[in-house]
Amino acid sequence: MKDLNQVIEGSRLKPAMVFKHRASSPESIEKKIELENGWNISSDMIDVYLVDDMKSKDVSREISEIAGINHEFPQIVLFADGVTMYDESHDMISVKKIKLALKIVNRTFKWMETRA
């Protein structure tokens, strides 16, 4: 849980995405492979974390609770500035959508910085 708080606090400096999956689920394994094969987002842009729902059920459920979303898997949650900015589950998860969400988050924060 301490690590989860560090992830969320760290998202104030750089967006962080958590991918929740269950290693015993064929759908979850397939989505993980799909993301790994299509992933081309620089680690300079986003920190990525993997949570196995079977090994860390409490952390997986806490992520959903903090994010204010239903607990599902596979599921991604994008945190930025310490809050949930985007989430997606099951077949709706894609690298393309993550890139779009990340682009919106980055533009929003750049706009906010210029307004300060």
From TrEMBL:
Gene3D superfamilies: Glutaredoxin (3.40.30.10). It holds the Pfam family BrxC. It comes from the Bacteria. This is Monothiol bacilliredoxin BrxC family protein.
